[in-house]
Queue: 3 jobs
Job 1
Amino acid sequence: MKTIAKKEFKELMREKTFILAIIIQLFIASFSTFLVIGLTSFYDPSTLGNVEMEGTSIAVVGTENDELFKILQESNIRTNLYYDFQPAYTDFYDRKIDAIIVTPVGSSGGTDLLNVDIYLPKSEIKATVVSLQLKEPLEKYEQSVRDIRTQRLPGYTPIEFNVIKRGLKTTSTYFEFIYVALLPLLVFTPAFISGGLIVDFITEEYERKTMELLLVSPASMIEIVSGKAFLATLIVPFQSFVWMLLLSINRVSINNSLQILLLVTIVAFILVMASTIISVLFRDRGVAQLLYSLILIFLFMSSYLFTNSPMNLVTRLSIESIGTLESWAWIGIYLLTGIFLYLAMIMTVKQDPNNI
Amino acid sequence: MMAGWFTIAKWELLRSKLKFDIRSMIMLTLSLILVIIASYAASQTGMSMNQKIYLAAVSQPEVQPIIETDQRFDYVLVDRYTDSNYYEYNADVAIIGNNVYLGDTRKAASAGDALENTFKTYRELVLTAYNDVNNSHPVWITVHDLERPQDFQLAGAEETAENIKRGANTTVYPGNIPGAEGYTGRSGSVKTGSSTISPEEIAALDEMQGRAFFEKQTIATPSNFSPPIPFTAILYAFLFIFPIYFISQFYSTSLMDERTNKKGELVLAAPLTGRDVVIGKTVPYLLITMIIQTAITIYILGIPSTFADIERIFLVLAAIFPVVLLFFALSFYSAILSRSFKELTFASVFLSVIISGYLFFPAMFANIHAISSISPITLIVRLIENEAVLTNTYLFSTLPFYFVAISVYTFGTFIFREEDLFTQKAISGKIVDCFEIFLSYPYGSVFLLSIIFIPFVYMAQLMLIVMLFNLPLAYSIIAMILLSAMAEELVKSIGIYTLFKRKIADITLRNAIKYSILSGAGFFVGEKAVAFLTLAPIASSAFGSVMTMGTLLLIPLFLHITTVLISSLVMYKRGTHYYLVSVVLATLFHSIYNIVILRGLFF
C-alpha cells in the first residue's frame, strides 16, 4: 500500500501536475478577492470612500420645500435643484450632472402613492455609484412617509430597534463573505480536487491496461486502491493548512484551526472514497468524472439545507459560534460516514469479478 | 475527402454510445435527478451556508419571531439580568427593550449590522401582509436608463486618457458621438409624469420581487431598490459554460484514449490525413454541444413565435459558438500534449478556470462599463435583455476567440502524427514541433508566425486587464507593462528559437539580424491591424492605451525589431539554452521603453 502511494506521489511530482493544482487554487483565490472588493463596494457604499461621492452630482427636479429634497440635502450628496426637467436633462447630456431625480407630486399626509423617477446614465459605472448613494436617503424618505401613513394600518406597531454601535466598524457583508464563503471554499478546494484526482489515478490504470501488471505483483487490488486513496487524502490537509496560513497573514483570524483541518481531512476522505467506488465500478474516465462532478454538486447543494454541513461547520468553528460538544458530535458523524464509505469501497472491490 | 472525416465522426458517435451502457446511464440520470432536487430545495432557502453564525441573547419573547426569520442567528431566551451579561456566555448581541447592545469583537459588530437588516426585512414582511399598498408601501421608485455620449475613462486616469485621445490615438478613437439632432428627438420621449407606472395591488410587488433576479429592475420600493448589478450575467455564464465544460471533458478523454490505447495508430495508418481524423473526432462533440446550447437558449428566451425571435436565438448561438470552439481547441491541444489523465485533468481545469474568468468577470460589468464588451457573455446578456448588438461589437469580442481557436487547431493538427502522439516526448519539444512544421512550409516564416500570434497576445493582455483591474491603478499599470511586454517578446522570439534550435537556419549573425527584422516587422503589422480593427471600443480607456502604446510614428516598429534582436543576439552568442534569459532581457528593455513613454502620463 505504501509503495503504491509512493509511486503515485513520485509521478505527481514528475508531471508537475501538482504545481498546476496550486496555480488553479491561486486563481480561485485571486478571483475571490476580486469578488470581495467588487461586491462589498457594490453593496456597501461607505467602502467606496468619499472620493467617488464627491465626484457625482445629482439634479433634483422639484421645489425647495420637497421633503425628499431636504433629506437628500442632509445626506452627503451634492444636489442641484432644478424647477423644470428640461434644463436638468440638458446638463445631464452635457455631463455636468450624473443623474436626475424627479420628486413626487403628493405629500406624506396624502393617500396617493408617491412615485420617485430616477434617471440614470445607461451603461456607466456612475449609475451604480449614484444608486448606492441614493439608497439610504430614499429609505429615510420612505420611513418618514411611513411614520405618518402606517398609523392608518389597523394594529400595526412600528418595529424600532436602536443598535448601539461600538467603535469597531465592519459590515456583515464583508465579514460573512470572508468566513461564510471564502474560508470554506478555500479549505475545501483541495478536497474537491483530490476527489477528481483519484478518478484519474484509477481509470488510468484500466485504460492503459496496467492494472493487470500491478495485480501480478504481490499487491492485492484493495492494497492498490487504498494506496492511491491514501495519497489523495493525505495531500489535502497540507494544502488547506497553507490556505489558512495565507488567510492569517492577511489578518483573517481563524479559531479552532486544528479541528477545521481534521474536518477537512475527513471530508476529503469521504469524497475520495465515493469517487474510488465510482471509478472501480465504471472504469471510464469521462463517465466517472461526470458522475463525480454531479455527486459533488449534489452534496454541495445539500449543504445549503442543514446547519452544521461541512461548510457551515468550518464557518462556525472559525468564528467560535459553536459549542465543543456540538462540533465534536458532528465531526464524529462525518467520521462514521467516512468509515461506512470505506467499508463500501472494500465491498465494491471484492465483489467486482474482474478485479481478482 | 468528405467521406474521410465523416467515417471517423460516425465511429466516434458509435463509440461514445458504447461508453454509456445502461448501468452508467441509470446512474447518471439518477444523480442528475438528485442534483435537480437538491438545487431546487436549496433555492428555496437563502442560498447561503450561514446558519447560526451569530448568537443573540434575548429577554423579551416578542423578539423571538423576528430573530427566527434570519437563519444567521441562534438565540437564547434569558431573563433581563442574565441578558445584560451577554458577553459572559459568548453571545454577540443582547436585545434589551428597544436597545441592541453589541460585544466588542468584529463578529459582534458584523452581527449588529446583520441584525439591522433583519429588522428591516421583518418590517417589510409585516407591512406586506397588510393589503394596503398606499399606506404600507407609499414610496415607489421608477428607474429610467438614459443614453448620453459615452466617455468611459477609468477614475483617476481621465486626464491621461484625454491626452492620448487628443494625441496618439486620434485615428482609433471613435468619432461617432451622437449629434445634437438626436438629442432633441430623445428628450421628447422622456416622460416627466410621476405616477404612470405605480402598481395598484400588492400582487405586483410579489411579482416584482420574483422576477428581480432575471430581469433588470425598473420599479421598486426604496427598501428593495438595488444598484444595477447584473447578477443575471453570472447565472447565464454558468448555464452556458457548464455543458461546454463537461462535453469538452469527454472530447479530450476520447482523444487521450486513442493515444493511450494506441487505437489511433490504426486510424492514422488508414488512408486518412491527420486533418480528417481531427475534424471527424471534433464535429460530433461540436454538434452535440451546439444542440444543448440551442436548448438552453430556447429555455431562456422562450419558444420563438416570430421571425425576430428566431433571429435572436441565432445571434445568441453565434455569440456562444466561438466560446465553444475555443474550449474545444484548448482541450484538443492539451489532450495532445499531456502525458497522463492527471495532467489532462489539471490542464483542462486550469484552462477552463482561465477562460471562465475571461468570460465571467467582464460580463459582471455588463451595463456598467464598456470593458465588459470583451466577453461574448456580455453580448448574450444584451441579446437576452432585448438590446441591439452592433456588428463591430460582435467582431470585437468574438474575433479573438475565432482566431485563437483556429490557430490552436492548426498547430495541433500539425503534430497529430505518430511521433508526437505515441511517444513520451517532452511537452516543450511537442510545442516546438508545431512551429518547426509551420516554419518548414514554403510560406511559413517568422514574419507570418508573429502575425498569427497577435490574437494570442491580444487575448492574454485583455485577460490581464481583467486580472489587474482590482489592483491600485499605479501598480496595475506597471504589472500590465511588464507582463504584456513579456507576452510580446515571447511570441516574437519563439520562431527564431525554433529556427536555431531545430537547425532550420544556421546560427549566424546575418540570420539573427534578418529574422529579427522579419519577426519584429510581422508583429508590428499585425498589431496595427488589430488596433485598427478592434481596439476602437476601448482605445480611450487607460488600459487600452498601454496596449496600443505609440500608435505614433514608426518608433514602435523600430522597438519591436530591437527587442527581438536582443533575444536573437543572446541566442546567437550563447546558444539556444539561454532562450529564457534572452526573453527576460528583451522584456526588461521593452518595459523600460514603455515606462519612459508613459511616465509623463501616469506618474
Job 2
Amino acid sequence: MANTETMTLNMGPQHPSTHGVLRLVLELDGEVIVKVTPHIGYLHRGVEKLSEHRTYHQILPLTDRLDYLAPMSNNLGYILAVEKLMAVEVPERAETIRIIMAELTRLQSHLVWIACHALDIGAMTVFIYAFRERETIMEIYEQISGARMTSNFFRVGGLSQDVPDGFVKKVSDFIDVMPGYLDQYEGLLTTNPIWLKRTIGNGVISAEDAIDIGITGPALRGSGVDWDLRRDTPYAGYEKYTFQVPVGEKCDTFDRYKVRLVEMRESCKIVRQALDKLKPGPVLADCPQVCYPPKENVYNSIEGLIHHFKIASEGFYAPEGEVYQGVEAPKGELGFYIVSDGGNMPERLRIRPPSFINLQAIEQMSVGSMIADLVAVIGTLDIVLGEIDR
Amino acid sequence: MAENNRAVLKLREKFAASIIDVVEFRGEVTVTVKKDAITDILTFLKQSLQYNLLTDLTAVDYLGKKEERFLVVYLLCSIPNKDRLRIKTPVSEEDCTIPTASVVWGTANWLEREVFDLFGIHFAGHPDLRRILMTDDWVGHPLRKDYPLQGPDREPYKGRLS
C-alpha cells in the first residue's frame, strides 16, 4: 500500500539559499510541496520603535540597515518623506547626484540578485562576474561617503557633502562598460539549457493574484503589470528622465529575470542622462531651520558651531501632520509613513518594506512544485531579511 | 482640494454617516471613518473606485492623546488611476478589535498579523492571526507607547532628555 503521509521539513534559518535568516517549515508529499509556512523575525531590531525616540536626522543611519544591499534607496525614501513633511526644496545638483546614486544602487542590488539567484540554481561563474562589477559600485560608494554599505550620504535638504574629484569619470567609465558585462551574463544564462529548465514555468503568479497579494517592483512587472513609481508617480526629479519600463508576459521566474536585466540597462541610461545634466552648484538647501550648516562654518565660526550643535542635539520641529512617500526601490515599493505631532521626533514612523510583502507570495508561488524549485522562487523574489524583519 | 477628490465625493455620497473627518496635508488625502463601516467602505473602494493595491496597513498609538487609543491606517493605491488614498479608523483600547481587511486584499494577511503582534489589535475574521516578528511566547506588544524602549524588566531609557 502506498504511504500517503506528508512529511514536515525544516529549512533554515541557517541555509545557504535562504538569503539570510529565513526559516521555512515545509510540508512535503514526497518531493512536492504541499504547504509553506515562513517564520521570520530573527533579525528584528525594532527600527520603528527606535525611530520614535530619535530626532529626524538621527533616524537616517537606521535606514541604511534595512535593505543593506541598497542603502541609498532607503536613505532616499526616508529623506524624501521628511522633506515632504518639512516642505524643503532641494538644489538641482543634489537632486541629480541622488538620482545617479539611486540608480547605481539599483544596479548594485540587481547584481547581488543575479549573482545569488544564479548560484542557487547552479551557475557559479555569474556569481564571480557580478561581484566583480559590484566592487566598482562599492568603490564609488566609498569614494563619496567613506563607507561601502552603510552610506548615510543623503541629508534632509540635499547631501552631506559634494562628490569628490574623479567621481564623474569613475561613474561614466563604469556606465560605459556595464552593458557589455550584462551581455556577458546573458550569454551565460539566457540560452543556457539548465537555466531555462529551472526558470521557465517556475513560480508562476498571475497579474491579478500579484496585485491582490501586494507584490511590487520587478516581481510585479514580471507578471505583466506596467507599474513603476519612478514613471507613474514621479519623485526626486525622475520626471526629467526618459527610460523604458520592461514588462514580462509569462509571469514566471524567467520573465522576472529578463525584466531585471532590462532594468539594469535602463538604469545605465538614466545615470548617463543624469551625468550630462550635472552642473556645479550647492548641494544643500538654504534652510537653516532644518539643514546642517556647511562644515567650514562649523569649524570657523561660533554661530556655525552653535547651529550645528542645535541641529545635531535637538533637531528640528516638524509641523503636525502625516505624510507617506513611496519610492521604487530595487525590490519594490519602499514607503515611509511619518506621523508628526509637532515634536522633534516622529510620533510614529512606519516603514513599508517591499520584501516583507513580496515574501507573502511564496506559498502561492511554490505550492505544487518540487522542493528544488522553491530555491528558485526565493531567488526570484529577491528578498533581504534586514528589511523584512526591521 | 480634498473635497474634489474623486474618492471623497463618492464616499460622501454613499457613506455620509460614517465619515468622521477629511483632511488634506501636503497633497495627500486622509479620510477618517467609523469602525463599523470599515469593511463596506474598503470593499466599495476596491470594487467601484479601482483601489486595487493595498500599499500598507498599519496602526498608530495615541496613548493619552486621543479618546480612542489606536488609529488603524490603510494606505490604498489605484494602479489604473495612479492615485493614492489614506483611510483611518479609530479603535479603542477596551474594544480592541476590528474586522479584517484580508477578505478584500490578500496583502492584509501578514500586515494585520504584524499590527496584532506589535500593537495587540485583534482582527476579527482573520484566517491565521499569529505573531509574526516576535516569538510566539512573547509577552506584550512592543510598538505600544507604554511598552518600554529598552524592553521589559529593565531600567527605563534615560539617555535623551529632549
Job 3
Amino acid sequence: MTVSSTEPHLAKATRSPLLAVAGLAVSFEVDGDTHTAVHDASFEVHAGQVLALVGESGSGKSVTAMAALGLLPATARVSGSITLAGTELIGAEQGLLRDIRGGRIGTIFQEPMTALNPVFTIGDQVGEAIRAHRPSSRSAVAARVLELLSTVGLDDPARVARSYPHELSGGQLQRAMIAMAISCDPVLLIADEPTTALDVTVQAGILDLLRDLRTRLDMAVLLITHDMGVVADVADEVVVLRDGQIVEQAAAAQLFAAPRHEYTRALLRVVPTLPELRLAQPKPPETPETPPAETSAGVAPAVLLRNVVVEYPGRRRGQPVRAVNDVSLHIDQGKLVALVGESGSGKSTLGRALAGLVPVAAGTVTVTGVEVGRATRRELRTFRSRLGIVFQDPASSLNPRRTVGASIAEPLSLHTDLRPDAQRRRVDELLEAVELPTRLRDRHPYEMSGGQRQRVAIARAIALNPALLIADEPTSALDVSVQARILELLRSVQRRFGFSCLFISHDLAVVEQLADRVAVLHRGRVVEEGPATTVLRAPRHPYTARLLAAAPVADPRARSGQTSRSTSCKRRKERAAFRHERVKYSPAQSPRPERPLR
Amino acid sequence: MRLLRLISARLFGMIVTLLVISLITYAVFVLLPSDPAQLSCGRPCTPERLADARAFMGYDQPWAQQYLAFLGGIVAGRTFGSGAAAVHCAAPCFGYSFRLNDSVTHLILERIPVTFSIAIGAALLWLLIGVAAGVVSAVRRGTAIDRAAMTFSTIGVSAPSYLVGLLGILLFGFTLNMVPVNGYVPLTEDPVGWLWHLVLPWCVLALISAAVYARLTRGQMLEVLGEDYIRTARAKGLRERRVVGRHALRNVLIPVVTVFGLDLGSLLGGAVITERVFSMPGLGALLLDAVGNIDLPLIIGITLFSAFLIILANFLVDLVYGVLDPRVAR
Amino acid sequence: MKRRSAVALAVVLALAGCNANPDQKPAAGGSNAGTEKGGSLTILNAASDINFDPAKSQNLAITTLGLVLRRLTTWDVQPGKPAQVVPDLATDTGKTTDGGKTWTFTLKDGLTYADGAAITAGDVKYGIERSFAPELSGGLGYHKSLLVGGTEYKGPYSGADLASVETPDARTIVFHLKTAYGDWPWIVSMPAFAPVPKAKDDPKKYNQNPVASGPYQVQSYQQGVAVKLTRNPNWDAATDPVRTAGPDQITFQLGQDTTVQSQRLIADSGDDRSAFGAGFVAPAQLAQIEQNASAKQRLVTSDAGALSYLALNTQRGPLKDVKVRQAIQYAVDKRAYQVASGGAIGGELASTLITPGIAGRVDYNLYPADPSGDVDKARQLLGEAGQTSLNLTLLSENDQPNLAKAQAIQQGLQRVGITVTIKPVDEDAWTAEVTGEKGDYDLTVSSWQPDFPSANGNIQPLFASSEIGRGGYNIARYSQPEVDTLIAQATAETDPAKAQALWAQADKRILQDAPIVPLTYTKNSFLHGSKVQNFYVPSFPAYPNYLKVSLKQG
C-alpha cells in the first residue's frame, strides 16, 4: 500500500472537522407514506481532505449532500445535525443558507450539460455566482470569471465565457461548473458524481483538477460517486452507503485493501476491471490494416464497410465536417465487434451509417449482402427488419404511452403478419429471453427501473431475429451492478440468437468483457483494430494506450503506477464535442393545449 | 448573411405553402354544391340571367382556369365585365366581392386595424395575466392561491367566449354602465375612445386565453423547476426570486412564446365570435358575413390571409426562438 | 318572390320562421300616434352591409331603400288592412288601354333629387335599363322577363337602350309588355323603378351613395359599421303621401349580434331608447321579455303572415295519387308543427294558399280537421287509394329548428302508417335540390313570403308549371293545365277585383289537388325602444314599416 506524498490527510487528520454530520436522518412524505432516504448517518470531513460517499443510486448519498445545502424538497423531514465549521445548517434560516451555498460550499453536479442553464452564457452564469456573494463592478466580475476559467484549465477563457453550454464539450462544461463552484473560495466542495457523464480521458482530467484544487485552495471535498475507480483515484476517506445507511467507513487505502462489509466487497467485485497492462512502449501508429473482404472460412461477413466517409454540413458554408473518415471494418457472422472512442470520435455516426440512418458520402456499407446506399426501398425495408438497435437511454427510446408488450410487438406488426395471439406469444418468449417476468407485458416504461427498461429495449431489438444488432452505449445510463447484468444478458442473448453485433462504447472495461474484436476510433478514423485481447492488452497505437491509461481503476495500488498520464491529459486540448444534432424545438413539439373559440 | 438566406428560404417555403392552401381552398369552395352566381342572380332567377351573372363573375370557366385567373390577378390585377360598368381590381387582387362592390384586398386592409387592435391588446393582456398566474401557481404549488388560480383557469378554458362576452356586456355595459358595449373607434381619431371600446373585448379574450397560458406556464414552470440547472442556481446561493424570475422563466417562456405566436397569428386572422358580440367590424366579422352570404371570393381571400398570418407567425416564432434559445441560434 | 324574405331584407342570420312564447298575445298593431318630427333614430342591423343600388337591392318598399329612393308606385301598409299599391313618383298607379300589355305613368310635377335637379322619366327609364346589366345583377327582376326585348337586353353600359320603355316627354313613361300583366302597378314599386340620373351613375359606387329622391339621403357609409341618413332638403312632403319622415337623422348600426341587439333594446338606455331592431327577436329573448314589463310593452308581433307548408312531390310514386295527397292533408299534425316552430307567437294554423294581409283572400278550409289532424279520415283515404303503408323521404335543412319541424311532420304521418325518413342537408344543398331538375325527394318543408303583396305572389311562383326546376320554386312539382290557365287569366286581368276573384278560385282549385299541406302563417316579433312611435308590423310584409316610424320628442 503506497500513499502518494502529495496527500495531506495524514498531516491534518487531527484538526477539528470542517463538516460534521451527526445522526442525520432524512425521510420523505409521499402520499402519506414515509420513505426514509438516510438513517442516522454520521461522518466528518476535514479541510484539505477528500471524503467519498459511495453507493448505488438510491443509497442516499445525494440526499445527504443536498441536506447540507438545505436544498431538499419541502416534503423532506430532516433530523440530526450538520455543522459547517461549527455553524448548524439544519433548520438554518434561508439567508444564512444562501450565504453558505456558493459562498462557503461550492457544488458540482453530475451532468454538466443539464446542470448549466442552456439559455445563458458560461460567463454570465459564473459571474452571477460571484455577484450573488460579492457585489462588485461589472468589469471586476468579468476579470474574475476569466481568471477562474483559466484556473480550471480552460484554454481561451474569453471564448468559453462567451459560449452557451451547448457550444462546449462535457469536459469543458464540467470545468466551467468547477470554476463556478470555487468562484467564492469555498471551504467545502461538494462534487456529486462529477465525472460520471464524461469520457474517460476527460474524466481523468477533471479528477486531476479536483485533486489539484483541493491542494492549492486547501478545500475539503465531499465526493459523491458510485464509481469505485473514481474513489480509488482521489479519495482519502470513504463512506459506503447502502439504502440510506452507512455500512462501512474507512481510509481509502484500507478499504480497497481489506473491505470489511459484504456490500463493499460486492461493489468492488462488479466493477469491470481492465486486464493488466503490458504497457511498455507504445509503438508508432500504423496504418490500420484493411480488413479482408472475406474471412478465412470463406463466409461473407455480416457487415462490411469499405472506405466509408460520412460528412455533415459545417457551421460555415461549403465546409462539410468529416465525422467518419475512410473507415473500413468488418463484422463476421455471430461475432461482437466493439467500437470504442470518446465523444465526437464518430462512433455513433458510424453506427447510424450502418443502420442507413445517415447517408454515406463515399465508400460502401454492406450489411447482410445489401449495399445500404444503393438498396431499393423494398430492400431497405427488408434490411431494416433484419436490424436491431439498442440505444443508450431506454427511457427516451421507448414510447412512454405504450405498454411494454406493445413496444416489443411494434416491429412484429410492422414487418410480419403475425396474428395478435401469435404476437403475444412471441412477446412472452422475448420477455423470457431477456429474463423479465411476462407479467410486465402490460406495464408502462415509467413503472420500470432503468435496467428493466433496457431489457425491454433489447427484447424489442431482437424481436425479428436480427442479423445485426447495433448497441449504442447500452449501459452507460445504468448503475454499475445493473450494468454488469445487462452486459451478461446481451452476451447470452447474442449466443442464443447468433446475431452479429456492433457494440459502441466508451468504456474499455465493458468492451473487454464482451467483444471478440475491437476497433478504436479517433477523430473519425480507425486507429487500431484487432482481437479484443490484443488491442486492450498490447495496444499499438498511442491513442489506444492513452485511452487505457485514463480509465479509472478501482484499486489505489494500480493508481500509483499511473502518474504520467495526469499531466498529459491535463494538457490535452479538449476538443469541443462534435454536435450534429442541434436542439430544435419545432412548434409542433411544443405543448399545445386545446384552444377555446374566439 | 445567414439570416438573410434563412429568411429567403423560408419566404419561398411560405409562398409554396400559400399556393397549396389557395389551391385547396379554391378547389373546396368551387366543388361545393352552392353556386355563388345564383346568389347574385336576383329574383326571379332565369337560367339566362344566371348564365350572364356567372360569365361576368368568371364562374363559367373551368375551375382550373378560374384558379389561374385568380393567381394572375394577384400579380397583375383583373378586370371583370366590359364597357362602362367594367370593374377593375388592381394588383395585388385577391378576388373581388360582387356583393360588396369592392376588392377583397381593400376589404381586408380596411378591417385589419380593428382586428389587430383587438388581437394584439388582448394577446398582451392574456400573456401577462396568464404567465403571472402560472408562475405564482407553480411556485406556490398546492396552496390556496394555486388552487384558486387553477379553478379559475378551468372555468376560463371551458367558458364559451360568446357567453363571456354577453355577460360582460350585460354586467359592465348595462348594469354598471362602465364601458361602451359595441362598436370600434379608430385609434387615429380618438385614442381614448379606442381604448375604452376595446377594454371589454380584450378582457373577454384575455380571460379565456389567459386560462390556457396559466395552465401552460404552470406546467412548464413545474417541469423547469425540476431541472438540474435550477438546482445549480440554488446551490450558487441565488435568491429564489432570481432563480424563478431569471433562470426558470427564461426557459419557461420558450414554449410559451411558441404557443403565443401561433395563437396571436390565428387571432389576427379575426376573432370571429368576439367581433360579432361586440359589433367590431374586423376580419372575423367580415368572414362571418362572407360565409353567411356565400361570398366566395371574400371567403377565399380571408382564408388565405389567415393562413398567411399563421405561417408568418410560425416564421416569426422561429426567429424569436433564436433569441430566446441560443441552442437554435445561428 | 322568395322563400326567405329574411334574405331579401338582408337580415342575415335570419331565424326563418321565428318562434316565440306560446302564451304571448301579439301586441295590438304596435304603437300609433301622430308623427312627431325630429330626433335621431337608430336601426340595429345584423347584416354588415346595405346595398343602396336599386338594381341590386331586394328591399321591400317599406324598409331601408324606401327612405332614400322613390319609385313610380309604392305600398301603403296600415295596421289591420291589406297592403295597397299607391302612386309615388307617378300621379296614379298606371293606366292601360289595351288590357294590360301597355302601361303609361305620368310623373308628378316639380319632383327633384336631393341636389335640386329635376327627376325625369328618362331617369326612371335609365334606372330600369341598368338593372338589366349583368354587372348589377342581384336585385328583384320581375320586370326583366315581362318587358318586350327584356330577355335579350344586357343593360345600357354597352350602349344599347331598351325600346320597350318609352319616354315621350320628361314626365311620361310607357311600358310595353310581352303579355298582359294586371299586377304591373305592383311591379313598378320595386327598387329598379327608382330614378337614376345617368350623369351620376357610377355602377361601382352607386351602392353606397345613390342619388336620393326620398326624404333622406346617405350622409356617410362605413361598410360593416354604420350608415347614416340625413334629411333630403329637396324632398317635398306634399308629393309623398306614404312617407312621414319623422326623425331628423337615421343611423343603421351594422353587424350587430341579434342577442346583443335584444339585450340593448331590453335595457332601453340612452340612445337605445330611440332604436329598434331590424331582425326578429329570438325565442330565448322572447322568454326574457315576457318577464320584463317594460320590454314586453315594446315588443311588436306581426299578424299572421308568410305561409309555411309541407310540399308533396306530385311527380313521385304514390304521391302522384291525389287520394294519397289528400290523406296526408288529414294525417299531418299541424299543432305539433306549430309547437315545433315556437307556438302561437310563431304562427297561426293555415288552410289557404293566399296569406292574410293580401287583398282578395278568401278564408276556407277544404280539409277540416282537428289541429292535430284526423287520423281516421287519413286512413280511410289511404285505403281508398289502396295504400296501407308508405315509405317517404323528407328533405330537410339540417339546422335544429328545421329538423324539429321535420320531426313534427314525421310523427304526424307515422300515426297513419306512413314512414318518413328525414334526409338532412345544408341550406345550399336544399335549395339546389328543390329548385333543380331532378327533384329526388318526396316531401319537404318550406315557407314563402311574396316580394309584393298580390295573390299572384302567393300562387304563381309555387304552382305554375313553368316554375318547376330551373331555379323555380314549384317544389311540389305541380302541373295542372287548368291551374296554369287560371293563373294566366288572373295575371292578365287588370281589374284588381276581378283578378282577386280569379286568384281565390285558383287557390281553392289547387288545394283540391292537394300538392301542398298549408301548415302555419308565420309571425315575426320585433323590439323597439321606448321613444320609438308609429312602429307596427303588418301581416304583409311581416316587417316594420320604416317609412312611418317616428320618435317621441321632449
